Amino acid sequence: MTLQTLRxxxxxxxxxxxxxxxxxxxxxxxxxMHYLDEGESNDKTIFLLHGQPSWSYLYRHMIPLFxxxxxxxxxxxxxxxxxxxxxxxxxxxxxxxxxxxxxxxxRQLGIKNAAAFMQDWGGMIGLRVLAKEPxxxxxxxxxxxxxxxxxxxxxxxxxxxxxxxxxxAGKPSITKFADNINYGNWASYFKHSDQLEIGQIxxxxxxxxxxxxxxxxxxxxxxxxxxxxxxxxxxxxxxxxLNQVNKDWDKLKQWHKPVLTLFSDQxxxxxxxxxxxxxxxxxxxxxxxxxATIENASHFLQEDQSQQLALNVIDWLExxxx
Length: 322
Description:
Layout lengths: L4 E2 L17 E5 L2 E8 L5 E6 L13 H6 L2 E6 L9 E2 L7 H15 L4 E6 L1 H12 L4 E7 L8 H17 L5 H6 L3 H10 L5 H7 L7 H8 L9 H5 L8 H11 L6 E6 L10 H8 L9 E3 L6 H4 L1 H14 L3
Parallel strand pairs: 4-5, 4-7, 7-8, 8-9, 9-10
Antiparallel strand pairs: 1-6, 2-3, 3-5
């Protein structure tokens, strides 16, 4: 059976603003994965991992700051997002496949003892990759993301509750989602909307006003609904593969390198709900670190406070002698 794969035409990205970066590609299982690789001559490397439904464009204002501070910056696009290939079947976009694709990307690059900034699904995928490849990183920054063990009754109930919330939400419009930002409206919007308004979604989850050109840049990877299998599927698989997630967490507890959390004060999904505290408690290397809350920032804090975020990371890397 041949995997139907779409590739966004290059002209869709022709008018991007503030994205002067050279495209790089690796092939993984016959799929072309796009990534940025800036400051290649610098000794230390930092990976920037995005989530759903964004892409490496999210890091455009942070990348030059990291390069100027002396870092090589690698920012991949998840399969199904950005300039990477887009399998058309939602069934292909399992949690395990996204972990496999990212792990393959890391292995092909062969870079070890790096640093990483992970946000949203970038963390949910990246942490499981780290469990499989513990030598990949020496420093880790986690931002507006979550991954946790689920055992006993929680393991049974959480997937059922999330499924119920999505079903109960009906078929929300982008306006309904903006008026009531919760998991149910999020999952149902992505499942049922005829054409996803990705730029509007990003705007809904930022505190600053994006320009029309910036919102179009977030729409660019998805010229028609056929390209949207990945962003549609990911809300449904948040609480999937829990047996493997639990095993990966057991491995992560053995990883003792320094960890920093930088969460937003206005993230409607994660702020003030203890996700950052839970991550801190799971990593020995998080103890005593200068964890911070980024103020006046929503879920996509890379858009809201890019300079502060980059400087926080740079200062911390220096403090920990990376």
